[in-house]
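Quick check before the chapter quiz. The format below is the same one you will see on the exam, so make sure you can read both the input and the output lines.
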Amino acid sequence: MSFVVESPQVQYSSQHITSQYKYQTSRVKNQNGKLKVTPIEEEIVFQTERKVPRIGCMLVGWGGNNGSTVTASIIANKYNMSWHTKEGIRNADFLGSITQSSTMSIGMSEEGKEVYIPVKDILPMVDPVDLVIDGWDISSLNIADSMERAMVLPWELQQKIRPFTQNLQPRPSIYDPDFIAANQFDRADNCIRGTRSEQLKKIREDIVDFKTSNNLDKVIILWTANTERFCEVAVGLNDTADNLLNSIENDHSEVSPSTLFAVASILEGCAYINGSPQNTLVPGVIDLATQKNVFLAGDDFKSGQTKIKSVLVDFLVGAGIKPVSIVSYNHLGNNDGKNLSSAKQFRSKEITKSNVVDDMVESNQILYKEGEKPDHCVVIKYVPFVADSKRAMDEYTSEIMMGGKNTLVLHNTCEDSLLASPIILDLVILTELCQRIKMKTCNDSEMQSFHPVLSILSYLCKAPLVPAGTPVVNALFKQKACIENIFRACVGLPPMNHMTLEHKMNLASLPNQISPVPSMPVTKKLHQKAAINGHTNGHANGFTNGHVNDVMVNGH
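Here is the expected output.
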């Protein structure tokens, strides 16, 4: 759905959308125990390239459940495939993708109703069906056989997709049994041999080959392979770009396979996204990306249990209710669960799942003293029978008024890879869009890009990577608002504030924006049926607040 912003602060050309935007925030200083708040306004020029380039995505772990599923989903949508289910015919879709299946508000209509457009239409974005997919895997199965092994998609649909995937062969990947579970050995028949320096060279050659052979403008690399154990972070090892490169040259055992892929991506000018919980993006990787001005994003896809947690805890703390115990249990039977049955790999996942509530807890000093946190326990078990259908059970215990306790218990059954696949698409699509957005303040002589650590993508990650010294935001609605409001700024629209003052007072500057509220005698008795429209909250008749029966207005 196309739209245009009519404003002297917005210019459209064949190459760019340029907006002059007033960024308003506030600064707070503590002066002798008194908080002094100063509103701040800064003019920022945003410039977005309109041409969507030809994009390739290389997946590390292409033959896994996520890689094979997202590839199959792209093909199914590209060719408008359908298949039979117990409920009837099902058509391919991208449900779960915020770019493809969610909407955002662009303002109020003349009738006073909010107008929504698909998120993908706010700025020019790549269509997922136009993505060119390639990648690496330690297993030599082609993508058709990998899809069958994953047991995620219906059999009929698999057979329709198979002709498009049976010749898609993953490139050899890096297998290091010191970093992933020993139970992955039986899959590792497609491996890059040699030293770390030799492996790095081969990955770079693969990236160049993929880009040139497919005539691509850009390539984005995304890790969706097995969770690794945490690597050591140490001065002289991986604390700077130079030290990390030297460690690779010296074949240091604490340089993980995922870090090698990240370094190769950066050296080839390709954005790198870490979709697993391990500490791939060590300081040396971030330093190298900063030097090369290449985007990084991570860590770990936020798909099911953690996404709900980042909503529910935000709600509870915001409501003045104090969560004191959070217990999260999972069991799953796919290869991710098998790998996580190893203690070191589970520890990586446990860390990303456990830190998700920190910023919400720290936001309320009334509920929590400094350093105080809820008890938080995360358990993951491998149960092969359930395959990709992960079970998650959560218990939230909170303190309420006057010493009371409140306990919420949730059970969530979800198709793990069908939740992760749209997140992969969103990460790639939004990363590419961010590469086309430039900005500058009045103090800048030239346009600048986003910081190489692309924290705008925090919504999609369990443990968001942020630039050094900046706060981590885990609250889901804040993360989503960040994405939407930055994109609104790119087209010259103000941030959404949900004040809707046009419905709460008479605004002289908006005389035709809202319909006048019809007057009614205060003694009139209401008998009409419950109405959804008008000035009600959707459940009541007339002008009441929810009582469906006869209502006397103003007590009459």
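If your answer matched, good. The two ends are 49 Å apart (CA to CA).
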